[in-house]
Amino acid sequence: MAELSFCRWRISHGSIDRFYRHTSGGRLMIFGFVLARCWRSILRSKLILLLVHLVLLFLTGYGDVPHVATKAAAKAVLSMKNDEQQHHTPALTSDNLNGEDQYQAVSEQSHAREDSLEKDRIIEDLQDHLGRAHEELMQWNLKCAKLQKIQESLDSEIHELTASLFQEAYRIVTEADSKRLYSEKLLTEARGTVEMLQEEIKALKLLMGKNEVKVSPSRSLQEFSPSKIFKKPTLFEGKNGGPFCFLNTNKKSPSVVTRSVSEHDPLVDHDHPSLEIDPICHQEFTIWLENHDLTDTEHPFLKRIYNEDIYPCLNFTNTKLASLVCNSIVNNTIILENILASENEKAKICALTEMPRLCSYRMKIDNADQWYYISTFCRNRIAAICDLFTYLRYLAQGLVQHGLYDAYVEIVRLRRNIAFVRLGYANYQA
User: Fold this and answer.
1) Which of 175, 225, 266, 316 could cross-link 352 (Cys pair, CB 3.0–4.6 Å)?
2) 374 and 422 in contact (C-beta within 8 Å)?
């Protein structure tokens, strides 16, 4: 110990050269001292320098290195000692540590371990907080995305509602305009009807003034109705109310001559004095009743009905659809039905006339799925033809028990209805 203390004194006072020359074991002790003192310097990346110093010290003991190298090694040892003193880390050698220093070192090491554990705990807590913050951030991002989707859906719904609102408003305005136009049209027609009735009243008054007709209050007004005053003689009636006889050459009254002829003519309708039976048509009808085939359009009776009644009554602009309607009537596959009042408020294009009309009916032909909108004028024509073919079909099937004459009179009545409907008299009563 005394020798080691002496070495310390010699090193601290800068007399390491003389110590090397006078002490034989000093070189090895200095070597161990350097190894004990410089373990932290090795950890501080001074490994190469220390190794060089140690090699120089080792070689100096054998006399292979000059005296300058010994001085460099001593200076290196002094610099390392100063570094240790600056970092306040005393060396843990067996010669300078007593019990108090060991206790202090152990306490410092325990404090260091506690500090490191505290730091690790703080780092773990911070990492936990960071993880929770990251999770909360992810949840907020999900909520923001969900709210963004809700906002987009609400914006789209508002846009759709606005568009539908404008469409509904446009539809209401359009319907109001169409109703206004239809009302104006009805008003114009009503004014025309009123003007026509006023003209008829004026003519009636003028006629009554000329004939000096005096009407008593007790007499019924029906005797002087316009229909009776303006009633004109028919084709079969003369001025005296009797039938015409265009071959009359006598001075006798036409009614007397016609009565004498009709008493011997079996084709004269005695119940209907104004009806003259066509003998040719009657003969054709008699022949048709023998086979009663409705599909034989070349039969003279059916050919006459088609040429005189059916084709003129179905003479519409849409000839193709009119032909289909005719075939459907013959095959009994046509359907006519009314349209609801809510659907009949504005004008449509009539399928047969191809003109804008108030279509109150629709029809379906040949059991198809398509409906055709038609006006009342077209419907009345089709209905009149259907009545005629229905009666002919009943005759062919034997569902009606009419005689030859009664059946012919009924057919003439139905053909007369077709003629009146074709001219526009929809509510004509036979």
Assistant:
1) 316
2) no
What stretches of 233-342 adopt beta strand conformation (E)? 335-338
Over the stretch 209-226, which tens digit does the pLDDT of each residue have?
A: 654 444 343 333 334 333
Write down the mean pLDDT value for the chain: 71
- List, run by run, the mean pLDDT of 10-residue segments along the chain (430 residues): 45 46 54 58 54 60 44 51 50 52 77 84 89 92 92 92 91 92 89 82 69 40 38 37 35 35 43 72 89 85 92 91 91 86 75 88 85 90 91 84 86 92 72
Q: How far apart, in whole angstroms, are the C-alpha atoms of residue 235 and residue 59?
A: 164
Q: What are the beta bridge partners of residue 416?
A: none
Beta bridge partners of 337: 362
Task: For residue 278, give Cα distances in angstroms to 18, 163, 242, 336.
Answer: 173, 68, 19, 33
Q: Which two tokens stand for residue 197?
A: 């009735």
> Can you name the residues that pair with 348 across neighbouring β-strands?
357
Q: Which of 392, 137, 158, 165 is nearest to 288 (CA)?
A: 392
The contacts of residue 294 (CB under 8 Å, 6+ apart) are 302, 330, 389, 392, 393, 396
Residues 358 and 347: beta-carbon distance below 8 Å: yes
Paired strand residues for 336: 363
Asked if 277 contacts 269 with a C-beta cutoff of 8 angstroms, the reply is: yes
Residue 398, sorted as left (phi over 0), alpha (psi -120 to 50) or beta, turns out to be left
Which helix (H) or strand (E) segment is 185 a member of?
helix 99-211
What distance in Å separates the CA atoms of residue 45 and residue 38, rounded to the nearest whole number?
A: 11
Give CA–CA dist 222/262, Å, rounded. Answer: 33
Per DSSP, 268 falls in state B
Residues 302, 310: Cα–Cα separation, whole Å: 10
How far, in whole angstroms, is CA 229 from its chain's centroid?
Answer: 64
Q: Which two tokens stand for residue 160?
A: 């759709």
pLDDT digit string, tens, across residues 13-54: 444 444 444 455 555 555 665 565 555 555 554 555 556 566
Q: How many CA atoms lie within 13 A of 356 on its CB side?
A: 7
Alpha carbon distance 288, 305 (integer Å): 12
Positive or negative, the CA dihedral 176, 177, 179, 183 is positive
Q: Are 387 and 393 in contact (CB under 8 A)?
A: no
The burial of 199, by beta-carbon neighbours within 10 Å (0-12 exposed, 13-18 middle, 19 or more buried), is given as exposed
